[in-house]
Amino acid sequence: MNEPLAPDMFDELCPSALSPIRFGDKWAGMIIRCLEHGPRRFSELRIPLRGITAKVLTQSLRGLERDGLISRTAYDEAVQRVEYELTPLGRSLLGPMAVACAWAERHWEELLDAREAYETPASGFGRAG
């Protein structure tokens, strides 16, 4: 059995949320990281992904399954149990994701400055009101 996922695995200010590099939808990279150490149940994934709704988590899991990055296994027990696990293809993303996360951490301040400048109308960036 895997160790429980930490509720604070993804801080609200985590560089993964700031990174302009996306692996699938907004949540896909974080889901992949949650599955890094083995299979997880839906309810386990909700712990560190506290900002995600059940509907969006379901959609993200289906998208990852469709793309061959995760597998879904339903166990026929008294109470049905479903687990999600990285496929070899999904596991092959862990290296590139680690590189992207390290890049975002190195450029954290620059990314924050760029986003702040974009949001500030006087900067000349951003959308016209």
How would you describe the overall organization of this protein?
The protein has 129 residues and is mainly alpha-helical. It has a single domain, classed as Winged helix-like DNA-binding domain superfamily/Winged helix DNA-binding domain (Arc Repressor Mutant, subunit A), CATH 1.10.10. It is built from 7 helices and 3 strands. It has helices at 15-18, 28-34, 42-46, 54-66, 88-91, 94-106, 108-119; strands spanning 40-41, 70-75, 81-86. A 3-stranded antiparallel β-sheet has the order 1-3-2. β2 and β3 (81-86) form a beta hairpin.
Please give the structural blueprint.
Blueprint: H1 15-18, H2 28-34, E1 40-41, H3 42-46, H4 54-66, E2 70-75, E3 81-86, H5 88-91, H6 94-106, H7 108-119
Antiparallel strand pairs: 1-3, 2-3
Domain HTH hxlR-type: 14-112
Protein name: Transcriptional regulator, HxlR family
Pfam family, one: HxlR
Give a brief outline of the structure.
By secondary structure, the protein is mainly α.
